[in-house]
Every structure is written in C-alpha cells, then in structure tokens.
Amino acid sequence: MEIILQPVGRIDSDILNILQTRIISIFGCPVGIDKSVPVPDEAFSTLRERYLSDVFLDKLKTLNKKGHKLLGVTEVELFTRGLNFVFGHADTSSGVAIISLHLLRQEYYGLPPDNDLFVERFVKEAIHELGHTFGMGHCSDSLCIMHFSNSLPDTDFKKPLFCSRCQPKLML
Ligand SMILES: [Zn+2]
Ligand SMILES: [Zn+2]
Question: Which ligand has the minimum distance to the alpha carbon of residue 131?
C-alpha cells in the first residue's frame, strides 16, 4: 500500500513535506508526492463562490491508476451537496480524498497567524480523510481523529491519532 499526496493547484512544498512525514509516522507506509495538477475550473459554483468537492474526487479517481490511496490537497474553498463548506471529502470505494487548506489558517478569521496550529489542523484533516479511504467511518469518541468535525473547535479538540477502536481498522 502506498499513499500519494496530489497537490491540486499550487501548494507550498513545506506543507507537502510536513504532511509526508506525519502521514508516514501514522500510517507506516510509503508516502509519495506527485506533481501539481490544475484546480478544475468546472468545479466552481458561481452561486456558492466555492468549488464542488465531488468534482475534485472524480478528477483524483482518474489520476489514481495504480490503486493507491490518493490524497488531494488544495487551497481553494470546498463545499458538497448538503454541506455549505467542507474541510475535506473522501470517496471510500475508490480510495481518493481531498482536503482544503482554505479555512484552516487563523488569518482567515481575522486572528494573528499561528503556524503550529495551522500545521496541526491540516495534518488532522489529512489523517481523517485518509482514514475514510481505509474504510473507516466516523467515530463517536470526540478525541479520536475519525470524529466528525463540524467546526474548527472540533478539529482543534481531537488528537491526530486513531482511538483504540479505530486503530485496528487500519489494515494496510
Ligand atoms: Zn469524515
Ligand atoms: Zn475512533
């Protein structure tokens, strides 16, 4: 099993390198970084002024020819049907997922920058969405990384780790 990080649009290489290191330590498998692909313009909704995450997942599926777990990373803001915004979205059956960095920086909310907090947030979103690609559902333990984040306080509260019930589901 291999996990591939797929930048969608330009992503700072420091972010990708941190993700690579942290994901290796959690999932214990090789993690590659692919060359960036463009943001799919057709995903943009002029009504919502955001991008439909499902289009990103479709695009990632076409790129995932070798059957790896493919995690897209983008800076643009995402939504999906029934949810006004999403931090990330996964397709369990095809092993692809996307995370958006858009809502994770303190500056977005008019607060002073906090890079350590930003790092923890995108690492958590990445582990959570990858957990889905390994077939995991949401967990009721609010400290578990597979707990659903309705808002950033939920994300900040949980730990970047699987709980003892979820961990055994990580069958590599
Ligand atoms: Zn989830
Ligand atoms: Zn759990």
Answer: 1
What's the CATH superfamily of 3-137?
Collagenase (Catalytic Domain) (3.40.390.10)
d(CA 81, CA 58): 15
Task: Tell me which residues have their CB within 5 A of the ion that is ligand 2.
Answer: 139, 141, 144, 146, 163, 166
Give the tens place of pLDDT for each residue, 107-136.
999 999 999 999 999 999 999 999 999 999
* Single pTM value for the model: 0.96
| Separation CA 149–CA 172 (nearest Å) | 25
The pLDDT tens digits for 53-107 are 999 999 999 999 888 999 999 999 999 999 999 999 999 999 999 999 999 999 9
CA of 88 to the centre of ligand 2 (A): 18
75 has catalytic annotation: no
Q: Where are the domains of the chain?
A: 3-137
